[in-house]
Specification:
With 336 residues, this protein is of the alpha/beta class. It has helices at 3-8, 67-74, 97-106, 124-135, 141-154, 160-164, 173-186, 203-219, 231-237, 255-260, 265-272, 313-317; strands spanning 18-33, 38-52, 56-60, 82-87, 90-91, 107-110, 191-195, 223-228, 240-245, 248-254, 323-326, 329-331. The chain binds adenosine-5'-triphosphate (ATP). Adenosine-5'-triphosphate binds next to strand 2 and helix 2. Belongs to the ABC transporter superfamily.
Length: 336
């Protein structure tokens, strides 16, 4: 049976190989207090996820849920407090020197603010030439020029030669994000971490950037992490979705399954919040803004209790373990 046929049967087909794996990762930040009585924020609690070549995983959650912390750990900006991160089977936390530099080239990040990530005093050519010369010393001067033009062309900045001498302020937000993507691709990465890559762009250009990232994911078989507040775009770009709340993964599985049949009350809340002109507004349903709880090493129970319509005594005491509810679909809730 071909992959396409197998997919039509409804089975979850995970193509590609696991490139990066996070296993039971905690990340603590010391916020203050004395040496003997520190206030420790647990920004991530027991997070496990995989990035697979040619596939994207969307990491969805509200502000402060720990999405960027997760990406920064994958990029080796932060070390985990507990748990392991492996890259092609090797322990990332042990990388130093040349191995760490190579890892940082293999794992590229695209940030939400395309202007902040480019140097306003330097040309677009400079932004592409530097990583090419640093990470691909085999290329001759002429080959570097050709590669810069090919990269700009590939991200849709045409005619490419026109863009080389321009500076970031001469480009629109969407064009700057295309330059940032070209720069990330210049070092031939294996993993792409896209941290809300469209949230600061005009709505009209967002789809173009998502399409470009999708093309790059497929053509280069990148293992991608797509961070977003917006569960609706998660389905568009990512095959798999993981929902993060107060540093805990509360639901994870195929994007289509998660958006069609969300099981965790938090995922259901995110889906209900997606604007849908066809849906009637229920006057009985009221929403109040609630902050994500500050999770510490002493916190217990499920972090969603203060907002959960299903809450019972056990939820206040014990964090639920992951429960399978479908092929490659897990939920952490006592009441599914
Ligand atoms: N370096 C740090 N020191 C202390 N606390 C931090 C640090 N980095 C992040 N945090 C805290 O960790 C929690 C998670 O932050 P993070 O930026 O990962 O969330 P996020 O989901 O990416 O939010 P946003 O969507 O607003 O970027 C927040 O409470 C944040 O204040």
């Amino acid at each position: 049976m071909s992959l396409a046929e197998l997919e039509r049967t409804g089975a979850t087909v995970i193509t590609g190989r696991t490139v990066v794996e996070m296993d039971s990762v905690d990340k603590d930040f010391v916020l203050g207090g004395t040496f003997f009585n520190q206030t420790v924020l647990r920004a991530l609690s027991g997070v496990s996820l995989k990035l697979v070549s040619g596939r994207a995983l969307a990491l969805v959650g509200e502000s402060g849920s720990g999405k960027s912390t997760c990406a920064r750990m994958l990029a080796r900006v932060y070390q985990p407090t507990r748990g392991t991160i492996t890259f092609e089977g090797e322990d990332v936390t042990k990388f130093t020197g040349k191995r760490l530099a190579q890892y940082r080239a293999d794992v590229q990040m695209v940030f939400q603010d395309p202007f902040g990530s480019l140097n306003p005093t330097q040309s677009i050519g400079y932004h592409l030439e530097r990583p090419l010369r640093l990470h691909r010393p085999d290329l001759s001067g002429k080959a570097v020029q050709q590669e810069m033009l090919a990269l700009l062309d590939r991200v849709g900045l045409r005619p490419a030669a026109d863009y080389l001498k321009r500076r970031p302020h001469e480009l629109s937000g969407g064009q700057r994000q295309r330059v940032a993507i070209a720069r990330a691709l210049s070092v031939q990465p294996v993993v792409l971490l896209a941290d809300e890559p469209t949230s600061m762009l005009d709505v009209s250009v967002r789809l173009g950037i998502l399409n470009l990232l999708e093309d790059m994911k497929v053509q280069r078989q990148l293992a991608a992490l797509y961070i977003t507040h917006d569960i609706a775009t998660a389905r568009y770009f990512a095959e798999d979705t993981a929902v993060l709340y107060a540093g805990h993964l509360v639901e994870q599985g195929p994007s289509e399954e998660i958006t069609e049949r969300p099981q965790h009350p938090y995922t259901q809340l995110l889906i209900e919040a997606v604007p849908n002109p066809a849906r009637k507004i229920s006057p009985t349903r009221t929403r109040r803004a609630v902050d994500i709880p500050l999770w510490t090493a002493q916190s217990k129970g499920c972090p969603f209790v203060s907002r959960c319509p299903r809450v019972t005594a056990i939820c206040k005491e014990t964090m639920p373990t992951p429960t399978p509810v479908g092929p490659a679909h897990m939920v952490r809730c006592h009441h599914i």
